[in-house]
Design goal:
- The chain is an alpha/beta fold and about 325 residues long.
- The chain has 11 helices and 15 strands.
- The strands form 3 sheets. The protein has a 9-stranded mixed sheet, with helices on both faces. A 4-stranded parallel sheet has the order 3-4-5-6, with helices on one face.
- Helix 4 packs parallel to helix 7, helix 5 packs across helix 11 and helix 10 packs antiparallel against helix 11.
- The longest helix is centred in the N-terminal third of the chain and has 17 residues.
Amino acid sequence: MNRWQAMVRAREAKASIVNRLGLTRLWTLREVCRIVGAEYPAYGNLSPDRKFSMICCFDDGYISDSLFVHYERDPSDVAKAAMDRGSVALLCAEQIDEYPCIIVPDVLTALQQLCRAMYDEIRIPATVVTGSVGKTSTKNFLNCVYSSQFRTFCNLTNGNTLEYLGFSLQRFDRKAKLFIQEVNESDPKNASNCSKALHPHIALITNMDRSHIGELGSEENIMQAISEITDGMGPDDYVILNADDRNSAKVSFSQKVIRVGIHASDADCVAKNIRSSGGRQEFDLFYNGEQAHVALDVLGEHNIYNACMSFVAGKLNGITTENILRGMKAYRPL
């Protein structure tokens, strides 16, 4: 499969998900304009009570009767395609032709405000997972732990941008008690926007490596971009760090910091006595005066870090040690 075929297949898959959406509720033109601080569209004669089928955050997920988010980076023919396929208005930075446009100074900021309004209606604890590498595996590991005791909403793919967050929040499971969101650090201000939308109470930072140095330019920029995950957090919230990662140790946070490690004996949560055989590994975990024996049916040192971070986050959410260990053992990589 070549790159173009892969892109087409991804778009088709995304469109099929959109078409099966069970949205939590519909948003009106009045609500959207109030949240983003915009005037009603100058064209189109839309009623303020006009309900949108969804706020469409993707440039390839068109559905009828939606409010289509048109980013500054998008060419005008993207707007035309959206309107031709049934969108009734655009959220954009400037007027496009004579389409009904909700005009805002910055589209991503407006989307962040809409995400915040969506999440304010849910009001359950949010945990975010970011870092240079290992975000998706850590998030899915954490989901196993949280789901061992609470109904948890978690996107199992690597959808980790503000656009995906806006998509997820519109199909949120209203019975969920905990929410997990993976966050990409390589897009400028993405971590900050997601954090401000969710005001998470826990942030897991897997590491601060060089994997996105092409986009961010330097290790210092990488560290800055990742640390912006705390922009929406308060001083009583928690940041869980990798104590063995040299760059993570260089960053100061105003939140409560909990460090997990294998080689750093002074970490707050430490894995010791690691042994592997037959496709599984076991170790003893020490945290906050508690010792637990962990058995994982997956190999790899990275999964030990996943386990330690998930153990700490689980305890912070009131999950019993028994359920945490059961959740850990249930983890399988995608």
